[in-house]
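Predict structure. Chain length: 402.
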Amino acid sequence: MPSLAPNRALGLIAVGVLLATSTWFTGTAAAPLLRKIWDLSDVQSSWLTVSVQLGFIAGTFLYAVLNLPDVFSPRWVFFVSAGMAGLFNAGFTLLSDSLASALTFRFLTGVTLAGVYPVGMKLVAQWLRSSLGWGLGVMLAALTMGTSFPYLIFALGVDLEWRVLMLSASGFSLIGGMMVLVFLPSGPFLRASAPFDPHMIWRIFRDRSFRLQAFGYFGHMWELYAFWSLAAAYLAASFQHSDSPLQGSVPLVTFAAIGTGIVGCLIGGWISRRVGERNVALGALSVSGILCAASWWIFEQDGRWVTAAVLLWGAVVIADSPQYSALAARSCPPRYTGTALTIQNGVGFGITVLSIQLTAWLAHCLGWKWAFVFLAVGPLMGAISLFRLDGKSEETASCESL
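Prediction complete.
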């Protein structure tokens, strides 16, 4: 296979990950359509998204226990997982005749995505060393673009037949997997395949540096998906409270708020090459934590100021995410990078299920003015953990761990 420049390899991985994870994000876009077609309640339709999250969590533990990204070629793991995600997504589209069967297919789609997103990060780590934070920032920017896309569909009023949307995602997933397998050579920093070790998911946490950055990541995840999932409801309530003329623009503002994360990921990755991943993560986490704590005050402001605050929030809430993966790759056992990244993602996404449900419940009890304030607990605990992480040890960490 011909050689490839690192930046071109990074671009190929980012596009491959974006296409392969399309089965994840389009489920969110199809839910409002299926709610009408299948006469689903709000709770039932929400499970079309939650089931994918739960499947992803289960899949990360399965892939990590079996050490799949490290025992086998990550390019092949990525390809097979992307293909299976497309297959299960097509099964959901063509074979689902009840909510139970639909949720089963969505759950299985989530399981296979555990071999796409974390493995994509390992592929980036095989191509980049000193600029790993930047590379992962580019990859996360692509993922953020996919996350925000369903909101753009609603904002533009695009009415797609749901089966076309879902089958297109299956095709994109297969194309993304094939791109990585066929056109991406093995990276110059590829480690030899690791032996199977089912205990490795526990052993990686023995390293203090890995443990501290992992807890920083967990605090970040406590906030991130709750913000992404519930920002539209928060904005709608705030605009209604102030009788803002922006009340009809909630989907567009939500799309922009999540979409600014693309800029946050890219800027954060670029800065990390100069100040280090730990400092970027600590800074972004601190700013987003402050915005959480001040969300009750932001809620009561004029709609234009609320929009500006939420756009800033959207940029910083994801800017630190790729930096944790870079820190994890530097501090985990060299031959088990894939396992470490996968299990860290699994625990993090498990936390999001709890934080989303808790925030929604608090909004019901206290109102949206106060609901996001409690998310500040995550950034606070995460920032404390990162503060204890020695920045010098990060900067001098052996790049051989990649």
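Summary: Residues 64 and 201 are 6 Å apart (CA to CA).
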